[in-house]
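To make this tangible, this section ends with a sequence with its structure tokens:
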Amino acid sequence: MNKTLTLTLLLAGVVTATAAFGQTPATDPDTGLPVVQPFRFPASPAVAPFWAKRVTGYLTTTDGTRLRYAVLLPRATGRVPVILNLHGYDAGSIGGLAYRQRQTAQNLELDRRLLEAGFAVMGVNTAGTGCSEGSLEYIRPQLGRHGADAVEFAAAQAWSDGRVGMAGSSYGGASQLATALNRPPHLRAIAPGMVLTDYREALAPGGVPQPGFITPFRLIFRTYWQDLVAATAKEEGDEACLRQVERNLDAEERSQSIMHLVTSHPLRDATMGSHDFGRDLHRIDVPVLSMEAFQDQAVTARGGHYQSLLDPAKVWLVQTNGSHDLYTVAAFQDTVVRFLDRFVRDQPNGFERDTPRTTVWMELADPVDGGAARRAAATPAWEVKRGSITAGDVSVRTFHLGAGGRLGETLAPGAADGFVAPGTGVAVNDLGGNAFWGPLPADWRQTQLAYTSAPLVEDMMVYGPASADLWVAATAGDADLQVTVTEVRPDGQEMYVQRGWLRLSNRTLDTARSTPLRPVHLEDPDRLQPVLPGRPVLARVEVNKMGHYFRKGSRLRVWIDTPAQTGGLVFDTFSLQQRVHVLHTATYDSVLRFGVLRDVRGPAAPAACGRVLMQPCRPDPLAATP
């Protein structure tokens, strides 16, 4: 079990998840209501220790904070290189009781591979989590400073040869970037996946509040501490750890909860800005192996834009369709071990020679239906392999929204189209299985707009972010928009590709960082722009990164409606009931701009619907519409 599956199940509903594992929810005797309990891990077969020795203790950071750590040593003799994991779940308890029962946020199979390769694996709990002391600050600068302290501590231990790398995803991926920008002397390389470099992008993508992140994230934290960390501490008789767990649980509820951050700082003020370290990542000077999933249902792929700040001579990138947990894929773990062997251990294993700078896994699919273990065996149908992809490798292709729901390469002007907002957006989700696509609401013709292109005359590899530059006029002021890109296939199926969101008052652009394909919004409280009823405004909506191969004969479609649940993203939309009009005239030309990666030739036959991860299909709902 890993934290991603835990998050997925929590999003399905805590009581539902508990019942799914054969447990009947308890009933509160006073209210008669089901007791909402933290998620309980299902029973798993115990794993025998695959390490030679386990070392535990506390390290003290330069600011005096005591952090809990645990180290698994390989069977190799002598001093060994160290791979560090730093996160807020159970990193400081690896190798303990819960870990041996496969109840851990650690990537247990990767840990095994690293130990077999002769690395030590070290886990450290961040401040204010598990049984580490200090204040929980999520991804503020403290995270990187403490990470640098942990690197130097690991390098100085008697069992360490002084060479340290980092690996892991999600929280453990963000911590690598935060650590590396501090340039600790003994850090050799990092392998981050599915990162979040800016909390604002998880809490309010495009400025639209997304409270679906908050409660599951809090419950995950608390479950790991009070169940898994505490179980290991009890086994070891560590009363100090147990007391610290209680203090951390109390602090998370009273003063250090992410709930306080969201309610006290709903916009990008100075405090929220301190949870964004993305702009400083140009300071990283070690080799980086990065992984990202385009349809990441937990944090989206927006954090991956940091890669453009790094020295391209030191970066290798693996990108794929799919979900937040794909760091577990066996093929990628092979690459991680070779990367760390080359740059942490300094082994001349040919990594630079035979590993492309950019590898895009196309149409990654499950080999079997269902089951949590399926992700490790997922394989792409084919791959795009390139050097470092620059802006010069991507051409901009523009489609104009036009009358009659047309999407064309020339403008077809006509009267504005309108939809009711807020309406019932259509969910795209992943609850422990392949993604599903919710049905269209009965009144979808009132609450959604769709624009569809003519059949493509040649194949097209869409790559990177897209920009929906929409001229809109709302009848009652501010509104939230969702833009969904799909492929309408010749077989009559419509396949989900990607989404983006924007609150109209958040439309002010950071002109220094925005490009034709990626609008970057300031989100500064002083730069919010009111929306006057009936007055057209230009809303540039960032559609998140994608890597999708549109084949000849397919049609491109864009839907515009109210933000809807997308994986773990559950939106809290805002506006008076109104009509939002999308304009398409010579004066107000609404367009969709894609990046097209040149010279890509994929297989003629598309992947089977229903197997491509996080890209579900449905029968084309407009097939019978004139």
Notes: The chain has two domains: 52-351, 393-619. Residues 1-23 have pLDDT under 50 and may be disordered.
